[in-house]
Amino acid sequence: MADALTLALIVLYFVILVGIGSWASKKIHNTEDYILAGRSLGFWVFTILIVCSICSGMTLLGVSGFGYASGWPGIWEQIFVPLAAAFCIIFFGVKLNAIGKERGYLTVQDYLADRFESPRALRGLSAVAGIIVSLIYLVGQYAAISIVLVWLFAIPHWQALLIAGVIITAYTVVGGLYAVSWTTLFQGGILIFGVLLMAPFVIASAGGLEHINTVIAGVDPNFVEPWFPSPAYASYAYATPEFLVSFGILLMVGLACAPHVINNVLAAKEARFFKWAPLVAFSIYAVVMFLVKFTGFAVRSLVEEGTLVLPNAVNAQDYSFIVGVEYAMPNVAFWAFFAVIVLAAVMSTTDRLMLTVGTSFAWDVYKNILRPSATDNEVLLVSKVAVVLGAGGTLLLAINPPEMLAWLIWMGIGVMLATFAVPLLAGLYWRGATGEGAIASMATGLAAAGIFGYYSKFVGSLPVHFSLYALILSALAMVVVSLVTARSASTTLDGTRTGWFIQSPRSAPGAGTPGETWLVDHDSPRQQ
Amino acid sequence: MFFGLPLLTGIVVGGAVALVVVLLALWGLMFREAV
């Protein structure tokens, strides 16, 4: 598959990434620079970072594959996932960014520890849960990278992993979030431009959207309906209305509170970015996702008409985008560019995950729990070592990926939803939420996600996604335990802007810190 | 028919996207910038 042009483009691409990493390393002077790029991210760097942290290799391969297999009922994924970016910015970003600057948070665990007055237990639990989920996700990303490189260059699996791992680790270790965010802007630009350029060709080559819809409706009339009828009648027909509701919550909220996504809001330079970032992030992401999905429909149509044949593989539908572009754009120059696009999609999530694992361990576990006296330089060093160790470990796992990798990744998103959503939302918006409630909620969510996830995989199918049950139990645990325990101090609640608002409804622009005056007289009578 | 889709699908999916865009635009318009 590889030719000189493809090889040259990929080498150039890697050189640019390492170059950005080298430039970024000069800007790192302390831990805050490394973890949060000195809270200096501009509008576009921040917005594209949020989008590309969510948008992984699954976007190109999995989304088109899902479109191939399920038709239009799966289109909701293309609304829910981009909505995760908007949800994260609006419901978490506005408050966390402001409080983070005031109180010096470097990670979202800093917020949880501060708001719930639990410097060790909650911080430790959330950090460990975040690191485990990120590591699972990371194995999946490396597996995807190696699939792309093996397919491009016909090199052994381990060589592909080593090349990608060394390059990503190099720029992430030396440049921290500066490197990750700027390489993501570069990679995101390539991804967006590439999909906008290539998907229309594939759709046109299949006869246009109207013709494609007619063909796939002939395969199963429900392929052109907005959802499958309930109960599901075939393995691909799980997108029933009730499942889609749980799927929507899972994707929109679960991805929004994933550690590698939510931590980005702490790094935005100015609060005013949150005005239009939700709409811009959603629009860009949705356009890209819809086009990729339509490519999956197009390839299904071409296959049904006998024009194309998918490879004989277990997950044959995941080759839809690749096969579609190969068919529609035989020109070698486009092909080389396409290789870079696929790599960009995968690598832009991988680096953010690696940095999250490293910084979460160094800051939340090492500095704040194991060795509070550690100096800034020591934390920086531990952070870098943790990135390298995390990368090494996941690379080893990715050489022989667990058979149930796809299930593990979905499990990871479910765990993120069940573990983090309730403590974060209740912490930010409910003054009655207590530290004990947060720990109970997190532990219940984690355990319930494991139990329901196991049940849905190995025992029997559930009408909705397993994570919804875990989320409900997690919320119940938060409410019940919070109501019977002493609430957090008013100074803490006021300092962390806790209350039923995003931006304070009373304070006029320029009249001081939003929320300050409004908070005090809205406490319920129940006190310590 | 809407691009070869049943009208219901076109309305539901198109409507959902339009609703999200309108809500996010409203968010942008109502956002108060600190002065």
Automatic annotation (TrEMBL), chain A:
Q: Which domain of life is it from?
A: Archaea
Region of interest (Disordered), residue spans? 505-528
Q: Where does it reside?
A: Cell membrane
What is the topology of this protein in the membrane according to its UniProt annotation?
Multi-pass membrane protein
List compositional bias (Basic and acidic residues) regions by residue number: 519-528
* A UniProt-annotated Pfam family: SSF
Q: Which residues cross the membrane?
A: 6-24, 44-69, 75-94, 125-154, 160-181, 188-209, 243-267, 279-299, 319-346, 379-399, 405-430, 437-455, 467-486
Which InterPro entries does this chain map to?
Na/Glc_symporter_sf, Na/solute_symporter, Sodium:Solute_Symporter
Write out the similarity annotation. Belongs to the sodium:solute symporter (SSF) (TC 2.A.21) family.
Which named protein is this?
Sodium:solute symporter family protein
